[in-house]
Amino acid sequence: MRDRDTTQPVVEQRGEDICRRNRPCRPADARRAVERAVTDCSGVHDGSCDAGALSDAVLVASELTTNAILHGGGITDFRVDLVGPGRRAGVRLSVCDRSHDLPVAVPATDDRGRRRLGGRGWPIVCRLAREVRVADLPSGGKCITVVVPLS
Questions:
Q1: Most distant CA pair in the chain: distance in Å?
Q2: Quick one: CA dihedral 39, 44, 45, 47, positive or negative?
Q3: Cα 52 from Cα 80, distance rounded (Å)
Q4: Residue 129 banded pLDDT, cuts 50, 70, 90
Q5: Mean pLDDT of 133-146
Q6: Using CA atoms, how far apart are residues 101 and 57, in angstroms rounded to an integer?
Q7: For residues 6 and 19, what is the distance between their CA atoms, to the nearest angstrom?
Q8: Half-sphere exposure (Cβ direction) of 102: Cα atoms closer than 13 Å
Q9: What is the DSSP pairing of strand 90-97 with strand 142-149?
């Protein structure tokens, strides 16, 4: 999947792959990486990121990493980079974990009508991202890659 990418990840360019340096990656680390990537490259991508768009990208990063930790056996890789110019600008996030299980949206209530705790993360990710891909990894596990619009 990474072979087809046309842009270089911001984290790799700076030599600051936080998840490789400090495993396991925490949601707070992912949020900071997204903020840093957008802030560091705002001049390159014409500064078209508003606070709401950045907030969406940070939330998606947090949800994906939390789900990988809670349901995927831990984070095996995390990448963030910016894609597309102007109105198509976005933050691409890739979060890999050890599980082959696909993410699912669970109903807000159980069979008896009782409200469930949790289960809202995947629908949030799908609603905020303009692209969502889930791919099996040759070495086992899966990688979820999303693009969250910055404008």
A1: 53
A2: positive
A3: 18
A4: very high
A5: 95
A6: 24
A7: 22
A8: 7
A9: antiparallel
Starting at the edge strand found earlier in the chain, the sheet holding 75-83 runs 75-83, 90-97, 142-149, 131-136
Residue located via tokens 């069979």: 111
> Nearest to residue 102, comparing CAs of 68, 128, 77?
68
pLDDT in tens, 64-102: 999 999 999 999 999 999 998 777 889 999 999 999 999
> Chain-centre distance of CA 38, in angstroms?
14
Give me the residue label for tokens 């696909």.
102
pTM for the model stands at 0.78
pLDDT by residue (tens digit) across 25-49?
Answer: 789 999 999 998 888 765 544 555 6
Burial of 72-87, coded b for 16+ CB within 10 Å and e otherwise, reads beebbbbbbbbbbeee
pLDDT above 50: residue 12: no
Task: Supply 101's token pair.
Answer: 């299980």
Integer-rounded Cα radius of gyration of the chain: 15
Residue 29's contacts (CB-CB under 8 Å, 6 or more residues apart) are 18, 19, 22, 65, 78
